[in-house]
């Protein structure tokens, strides 16, 4: 089974999982959200995540989305995956946002490797733009009217 593993500082990953359940409730059991709690050490996070891993299939695959590449939570989770022999088959992406998470859950079982990475990252990037609302009566048709 391939899991979508959301990793963050604080409760960000849990909030994303909660929002994701509104769009992909039928796939939410494939999502694991883990965050480094305020005041928690990385060792405590590692222990907590290792216990979660022990309850999963030993042949599980992971698509890991982290809030920050190089951050303590993602680094810690990667270390635990390595200790369990699961890092080599994991795909790890950083800079997580909601469009990225939504695409990841929808595509994780149908795309693999570079195709999955490219599609998920492109969606995350394309979602980043300025929103310029148009006040009713403005002339520019390229902006959303409010």
From TrEMBL:
Residues 1-128 form the PTS EIIA type-4 domain. GO terms for cellular component: membrane. The keyword ATP-binding does not apply. One of its GO terms (molecular function) is transferase activity. The keyword Chloroplast does not apply. It holds the Pfam family EIIA-man. Keywords: Transferase. InterPro entries: Bacterial_PTS_sugar_comp, PTS_EIIA_man-typ, PTS_EIIA_man-typ_sf. One of its GO terms (biological process) is phosphoenolpyruvate-dependent sugar phosphotransferase system. This is Phosphotransferase system mannose fructose-specific component iia. It comes from Liquorilactobacillus vini DSM 20605. The lineage of its organism: Bacteria, Bacillati, Bacillota, Bacilli, Lactobacillales.
